[in-house]
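A reminder from the course coordinator: this example appears on the midterm review sheet, so study it carefully.

Given structure:
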């Protein structure tokens, strides 16, 4: 099924919170996820198990929050020290988009790197800044986030399976996740031809699970022909975008999708993207996660591996197939540095020169 060029995936076989015990019952579903992630990097899900009343409650509180005076909204404005809260970019000559946002985190507080500077190992604590009005906003956010976490878990399991990995392969990366909900308001815009709600970008996290209202404006870029596809609102559905983190974990099998939001002169629009982000200290290996000998061989080929370009291999050595693959590489003359091996589940391979200090 398609909804205006974007696959529409029915999750009903997966509706309880656990994976069905019979793997063949979800084979088709896993295939659909694989095709959607490969071809577009985005899809919509229906029968996703998220109760409609939780979504509607948060949508209502979001509308109430943004309907307040500018002064009230600015009371919870984020700043450099604590980059969580309200921000708007309405008055910045549209380069940053015709929108305003409130972005509460799921876990509160969270600890994140103090800066993006290489070599800065400092950490800082970030706390949610939530408004007093509407009074039900905090509860609505918490209840909604709980549902989003469950859906995210299902989607990550399906994506793992679709990559030939165990269903729970990615779960361990999300114990102290840094996911957050974004309440976004795009006011109607008198100069829609000169502005964008959000200009073309990719999301950095693992996935984004997005609820949009019935106005429309989101577009995703189809890699095959560079065409922008309008995502027509499907009532109660969620749009799922593949982010950069999944792109890396999947060794580019799935690419994060470029998207943007158009604005219009008549209607304001509300959306609620939920960013599914791993723990801040999770290592995102440059060449993905491999659990079988074929993918390791494929990688060696992809890297045009030669003895002059040695690889560093890190592995738990629990999997005979992997050990065989390493032997295979050794036979081809690789310089393997056994004392550099780290005991990490699965296999991570990176060219030596980018890892050695
Ligand atoms: O509002 C939307 O439809 C998309 C928002 C988005 O892409 C983002 O916040 O990263
Ligand atoms: Fe986005």
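Designed residues:
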């Amino acid at each position: 099924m398609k909804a205006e060029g974007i696959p529409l995936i029915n999750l009903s076989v997966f509706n309880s919170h656990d994976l069905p015990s019979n793997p063949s019952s979800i084979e088709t579903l896993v295939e659909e996820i694989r095709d959607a992630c490969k071809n577009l990097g985005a899809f919509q899900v229906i029968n996703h198990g998220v109760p409609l009343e939780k979504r509607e409650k948060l949508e209502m509180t979001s509308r109430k929050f943004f309907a307040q005076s500018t002064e009230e909204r600015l009371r919870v404005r984020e700043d450099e020290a604590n980059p969580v809260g309200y921000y708007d970019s309405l008055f910045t000559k549209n380069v940053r988009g015709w929108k305003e946002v409130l972005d509460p985190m799921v876990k509160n507080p969270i600890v994140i790197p103090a800066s993006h500077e290489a070599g800065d190992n400092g950490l800082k604590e970030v706390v949610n800044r939530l408004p007093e009005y509407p009074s039900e906003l905090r509860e609505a956010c918490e209840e909604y986030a709980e549902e989003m976490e469950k859906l995210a878990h299902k989607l990550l399991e399906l994506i793992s399976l679709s990559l030939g990995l165990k269903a729970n392969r990615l779960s361990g990366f999300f114990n102290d996740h840094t996911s957050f909900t974004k309440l976004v308001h795009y006011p109607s815009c008198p100069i829609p031809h000169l502005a964008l709600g959000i200009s073309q970008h990719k999301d950095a996290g693992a996935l984004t699970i997005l609820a949009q209202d019935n106005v429309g404006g989101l577009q995703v870029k189809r890699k095959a022909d560079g065409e922008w596809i309008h995502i027509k609102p499907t009532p109660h559905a969620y749009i799922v975008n593949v982010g950069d983190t999944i792109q890396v974990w999947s060794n580019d099998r799935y690419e994060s999708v470029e998207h943007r939001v158009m604005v219009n002169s008549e209607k304001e629009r509300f959306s609620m993207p939920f960013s599914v982000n791993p723990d801040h200290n999770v290592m995102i290996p440059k060449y993905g996660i491999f659990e079988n000998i074929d993918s390791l061989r494929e990688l060696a080929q992809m890297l045009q591996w030669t003895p002059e370009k040695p690889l560093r291999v890190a592995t738990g050595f629990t999997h005979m197939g992997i050990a065989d693959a390493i032997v295979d590489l050794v036979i081809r003359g690789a310089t393997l540095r056994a004392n550099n091996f780290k005991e990490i589940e699965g296999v991570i391979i990176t060219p030596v020169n980018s890892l050695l200090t």
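The first strand starts at residue 2 and ends at 3. Residues 292 and 322 are 6 Å apart (CA to CA).
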